[in-house]
Amino acid sequence: MVKIDNKEIKVVILLNSTTVPSWVKYIWDYIENHPKYNVVSIVINSNPISNPNASFYRLLRKADRFLFKYSPDPFKRTHLNFNSEVKELNIRPIQKRFSDYFTPEDIQKIKDVDPELILRFGFRIIRGEILSIPKYGIWSLHHADHIVNRGGPPGFWEVVLNEPNTGITLQTLTEDLDGGKIIAKSFIKTDYTSFNRNQAALYWSAAELFKNKLDDFSKGEVHLDKVVDNVSLPEFYSHPLYKDPDNLTSLKIGVRFLAKSSIRKLKDVFYGEQWAIGYAIKSDIESSFFRYKGLYPPKNCIWADPFCVKKDGELFLFAEQKKGKENGEIISFKYDAPTKSFKNLGVVLKEPFHLSYPFVFEQDNHFYMIPESGSINKIVLYESIDFPFKWTQKRVLIDNIAAYDATLYLHEGLWYLFASIKPIKGMSANEQLHIYFTDNLLEGTWQPHKLNPVKHDARGARPAGKIFEYKNTIYRPAQIASYKYGYGIKFFEVIKLTPEVFEEIPVGETKPLWDKNLLATHTFNFIPGISVIDFQKRVRRF
């Protein structure tokens, strides 16, 4: 943990040009408008070196960008506008094979502006005296998990090697390449269908991570996951140093990629994907998923996100129903004990926008529901006026927010709302977990948690069902966004939850392995008497 003073932080930004990619402009806009940060200088690399790529690699990437566009494009160039008080320094570094060193004269120029923090968005590998100038270090992004991938190109080899996730490492630079002090790490789901789309999603997520950590730092402290100088044993790296592929390797990758894409499209002709519901009638949690009975929707329809409640001793399920390309709607089922089966009660909530994840709960003898309505940028609370068939909007809990899978939990007199937030258009809805709290569900104002986002990791951020207590322990189910959307469920034990603190540890997970046709499972709910899940299966179209 690094403490900072309550004065402005003097910042120097390293660039290759004042015309920058959109993802850099996004961070620049945040810094420029933040009262805590004072950009005193921009250091421009007067002689940037572009590494020559093999011709077939360039062709491969060009074709991929043409076929698989991404919006908004993080690499679209835009000009930085800065005021006259920002000193522009043009520096010609001493260039070695992969590294840039600064001359004594240029080092002095940077010392003269007395930076406390340097942000690197240009130059190559930086070495030498400059690393020790700012007391808060040189912050730099490595667009990969530094434990398994060092080198480049960013977001490329994860697609080639079918890695389930692509990592992001924000660090302060040291002489050890990609071995600096870790400020934060994050992961996105690897997009196997396109190098460009995977890289674009990676850069937007990394920009948001960078911005969030600058925000944390401005509030007085930033946590370092490790401090290299204080560990006795080095962190071993056993993977190759990745590089741009040569022509032969690029050709092989292109052929394999084309073959995989063709096979995938051929499968899509004959097979589709369908979500269904599984349940187990049992007083305790049923932990063996092969024992669950299935509730299967008709063709061209999915049932997903099941939630369970009891009313007057009877069991009810609520779930998303989606037919083809129509918006999702909420349906309900009632358990019939004599036949040991669920009866479909039909649609109970339909809106002109998409609904899913019907978080249903009882409070003070009233039943409420918070369905996912991220498409309208609102979190809406509904109240039942004729259970389970009729629901009316009670209040908008939080407005102007792209929130997904809102999950309430009442803890020590406060209501906590967990949701996956999509802060910018270029990110997915699977990466950031935010918490809000209030002392009054029906009338209170929701306040953001001090640590928001409390998690930035597609491997366990997005809610996957109610937070529940089991044997005096609090558990939070979360989606594992690896391999594909909603691939599995990770269970976290909640260690501490207050408006200022959130701590949880992973304690288990489930993956879609109990049937050969399964593809995913992304919701789990339990109340005494029933455990319920959803699962996605591969189904024949004909």
Structure notes:
It comes from Pontibacter virosus. Keywords: Carbohydrate metabolism, Polysaccharide degradation, Xylan degradation. Residues 303-507 form the Glucosamine inositolphosphorylceramide transferase 1 N-terminal domain. This is Glucosamine inositolphosphorylceramide transferase 1 N-terminal domain-containing protein. This protein has 542 residues and is α+β, with helices and mostly antiparallel strands. The protein has two domains: 2-245, 3-Layer(aba) Sandwich (Rossmann fold); 271-540, Glycosyl hydrolase domain, family 43 (Tachylectin-2, Chain A, 5 Propeller). Helix content is 16%, strand content 44%. The chain contains six helices and 38 strands. A hairpin with a 1-residue loop joins strand 37 (524-527) and strand 38 (529-540). Helix 1 packs parallel to helix 5 (195-218) and helix 2 runs parallel beside helix 6. The N and C termini lie far apart (59 Å). Residues 224-231 have low confidence and may be disordered.
